[in-house]
Amino acid sequence: MAESQAAAVSSSTLKIDTVSISETAETASAMAVTSVAAAIAAAARTGSEARVSKAALAAKLLSLSGVFAVRKPKGPTSAELLNRLKEKLLAEAEMPSPEWTKRKKQTLKIGHGGTLDSAAQGVLVVGIGRGTKMLTSMLSGSKRYIAIGELGKATDTLDSTGKVTEEKPYDKITQEDIEGILQKFTGNIMQVPPLYSALKKDGQRLSTLMKRGEVVEAKPARPVTVYSISLQKFQPPFFTLDVECGGGFYIRSLVSDIGRELSSCASVLELTRTKQGPFTLEEHALPEDKWTIDDIAQCLEHCSSLLPAELALKKSKPEGTHEQVLSCEYITLNETKGEDDGIKTL
Fold it and tell me: Is there a catalytic annotation at residue 242?
């Protein structure tokens, strides 16, 4: 009797355990299916959100329009730096995207005004969107430079990137001597542009012709304006100048002319543009780690207050729709009067 009861209990327990196990398995299976479905739904939402995010970034990039400034380091040319900026913006917006290739293309216009060569650093003014049309007006403003000149050494490019063409003594030159001649280079003066420059002959840059070894005649002297010039430091053979000038002025020519006026010779060792128009190096020039769509949008908003009233009124509206793909048009607008920094590498 006891054995029979025990068997019955055992059998009952077995049935309960079996049912429990079966129900647990079914529940687990259902939970797994639900989990997979949830994961798929979440992935779909994430993918959809990602597409929306990309489209929003692309639209915001295409809507950027105006003028701002970036901080150019030594090393790249102005053109190379602008290309780097363009690539960073494209990469952030992940443009162009494959799913948009069949749709109408939208061109992103971006350019710079006022070339700085590879050896120079400082403010580089950039126009984006319709801001590229403002660059010519921006170039009419003054520019400010800190230039370090080296006495006793002349080069074919008038800066440290060129070949030494002449060496003369400088040991008798004093601080008073330099300060005494600076007045000659202030105001409305005549200046001969350097041979290595962005100026053109028969459609080609003089610097390009020089690199080919072709004979190039110097351009005639032309009127330029120097608003102020001061000697900041003199530690022979080096002297530091703070110069504010108008468009078309060459700092390299200035330093070379100063050396000649002192019965010696001189060339530019370092050059930093600290101001162009209303943009200053410390307040407005974006460093490379700030080259993002949001940072540039904020900078454009801030810089709009710096523009002349006639330009601010022409602030452009976003062009195109969110469904347009981006292709790049690389535009460089150089001042027709010529630039005032080392141009050897151009």
Answer: no
